[in-house]
Fold:
Amino acid sequence: MVQKLDYLKETPSQTAGPYVHIGLAPGAAGFEIYEKELGWDIAGPNAKGERIRVEGIVIDGIGSPIKDVMLEAWQANADGIYAHPEHPGEVEEGFRGWGRVITDFETGEWGFDTVKPGPVMGRSGKMMAPHINLWIVARGINIGLNTRIYFEDEAEANAADPVINLIEWERRRATLIAKRSERDGQVVYRFDVKLQGEDETVFFDI
Amino acid sequence: MRQPGEFYQRDREWHPPAKTPDYKTSVTRSPEYSLLSLQQSASEITGPTFGHNDIDPIDNDMIHNYAQPGESAIGERIIVHGRVLDENGRPVPNTLVEAWQANAGGRYRHKKDTYLAPIDPNFGGCGRVLTDEDGYYFFRTVKPGAYPWRNWVNNWRPAHIHMSIFGTSFSQRLITQCYFEGDPLIAKCPIVNTIPDQAARGQLIAALDMNATIPLDTMAYKFDIVLRGRRSTLFENRLEGN
Structure:
């Protein structure tokens, strides 16, 4: 016999199910209940940096857009600082860095407005390219999927990014790079997520 | 000097795997490639924070938070309470717990739910609360009913409350479901059974808690939530810098 390691076990995950909107985005479910729904404003009015829109769809293994997904974004500000007490530095007043969006029930399109994050210091003094951390839950997804959104116009930083470079199969790295375009004077990054099959998005165990 | 370091690796054999064919929707919504394991950086050990300005005190009372003045939701009145802890047994204070559920008849207030059980005009079905300094949270609600779903033709979900918990980092982010002690549908549910381990499934079943029950008023169930624990960095901290 050895001594007992008396750690607790993490509560097991379960799917968010088809009605995740009721709890986390009730306005989309069709009713108003809270004074304030959370997650609509990631950057706030005072954030420095380039205003961008990020949008896409989530596609299943047979190529259909999924119309009941919820996505959460977590990002640093334009200086590469997270709005969190453990990250050194200050963020602008009103900058939360966190957002929550759901897909359109008809089209499966999702999108959020924010500012482009700056590079963040990674492990062992290696700088990470600008990225947005993304968490995806839906009916049929038993445990939330983590991925990262990188930016097409940061090719040099992406090439040196310690996380992208962990992906041995270089062709798969492209699944994490959002495509930049402009629409009515606004910068838009397109980031489609493919859950399964050809060009499947890289997901992380963080 | 002990410094906070990374969070413990998630035990992917304890959680449900992505592809669980008896839960049919998972078949086309599960990645086929392996997850890429990351050592954590600032992107993973930080996460959003919430305060009392974000929510209303009534948000944790689902019996009243959508009811007309003087009315209340119909159903079995229950308190669901417990603590949010990490794997080291430490309380997780000031963290946001969000919950959503069907009404007493198993009907959700959602435009996509067409189940023939009626909507309760005084029940919305969502609530949220911040844990206190001891990691403690509580909701008041009505016990949700079981409901049918199109998986096999005669599948019924056990009574459950969906719960979403943030913790202190994005790597602790968790959505799960709380079931109720004694429900015979639990053992038959393909979603519950996505979890391979019997003991892990048991961790999602709230216990009837007569000590917290308010006599002649409201029954209580206890549901503790455990988030990933965190390592102390004993010798060096290579998360950042050299």
